[in-house]
Fold SET domain-containing protein.
Amino acid sequence: DTLQQVPQKPILADACPSDSILHNGECQPAILGAQTMDNIRQNTTITLEEARASAQEHEGFPWTFLPECYSNEKQTEPVCVFSDQDFAGGRGIFLVTTTPLAYEMLKKPAFSQPEALSRMNQHSNPPFEEHDFPGKGRGIVANKTLHRGDQIFASTPLVISNPLSYNLVDSERLRLGHRGVDTLPPDTQKLFWGLLDHFKGDPVEDRINTNAFDITINKVQQYAVMPEIAMMNHDCRPNAAYFWDEDTLSHYVHATQTIYPGEEITITYINNERKREARMKNLKTNWGFDCSCSSCAAHPIFAAESDARIQAIENIAEALNDWTSSSTATPEMAETMLSLYAQERLEASMGVAYKHAAEVYSSFGDRYTAIKYAQLALEMLHLDRGFNDNDIKFMLAMAKDPEQSWSWKKRVGHKRFEDSSCGHAH
Ligand SMILES: C[S@@+](CC[C@H](N)C(=O)[O-])C[C@H]1O[C@@H](n2cnc3c(N)ncnc32)[C@H](O)[C@@H]1O
């Protein structure tokens, strides 16, 4: 209730003339009529129904409601809540962001070609069921065998929020969040309110903080909440991986290994090629929970063995990344690295190890082993990084023709050491 009494600050004031809107840093013809723009300028907080009516008055206006915005000395570019109830076949979405970025998002196929989302949000016959796990809350469990590469979800976010909103005063930022949730279609609001509120603060912001994933749109980091992936718990040795696709504004989750019925399907919230203490600290600091996954909970002796393998992976990576003439890198090192990844149950992150292997074999002129590992890298990097990753493009080229790769025969003639352990001399 108190939130609704917060007066709205002037927005877009002096930014552009009344018949235009700030877009891409420039004043462009307003899709809004001058009268509506005046309403915003005059500091009026209008009801949702008024905001809907105002939006409908303007043919072709892309949002279901007239956006509500706030700015201040610290955040001169207004941050607004933009909502589209028709997004993704009626699931709806709201964006808490600046006008230029919101209009950049509108240009993406997700908004401009609704058929681009025909494969998304199809959850009628899921390969999993929800289950309660003591100490972790809800999670999802496979109800059929999933194979590496099988899709588990492809979901659109309910909200995409720009970190710039933290420049607003708390009451205004929170008001935008609440307004956004109120603009979602009723069934989607239920999905939002069903999310976990781990920190017990403001109910909207808390649900966003507990469940949001970092994503990037036009190189700008944002937070996005997908209610399906939000049911997945963290595991330092997960059996599934996710990626964000900017074109469809969608989050994909795939199995990265065979998952049998009854097994929990997990993802990682962090970089897992770190030692246990660092992983646990990251989860506590950034996600606010004490990790109880099997590798966090392992006996100290086993945890120390695991940490030693992580250290060995790090040492080998350093040696393989050395492209100088004094490099000690050998294909055997890459084989040991692959074995360490498998032993650590880091299948979900194995793409990077396969890439190392492809490169080192290429550097010694071994065409077919380079191709073999480039193909393996491609599959795993796709599942973990999505469609547009640079390493993927590089591995595609390598799989086609290693001889054209920059690494081809780079190390031919280098001394090949017998010792294939993590033997990088410091
Ligand atoms: C995105 S939600 C995951 C679904 C959540 N369990 C639920 O009931 O809605 C993230 C929250 O789940 C819990 N969680 C996830 N993975 C965990 C783990 N490995 N150990 C302990 N708690 C975990 C934490 O409370 C965390 O804040």
About this structure: The pocket of S-adenosylmethionine is lined by residues 135-139, 196, 198, 210-211, 230-231, 233-235, 287, 289, 291-293 (CB under 6 Å). The longest strand covers residues 79-84. The two ends are 63 Å apart (CA to CA). Residues 1-16, 28-43 have pLDDT under 50 and may be disordered.
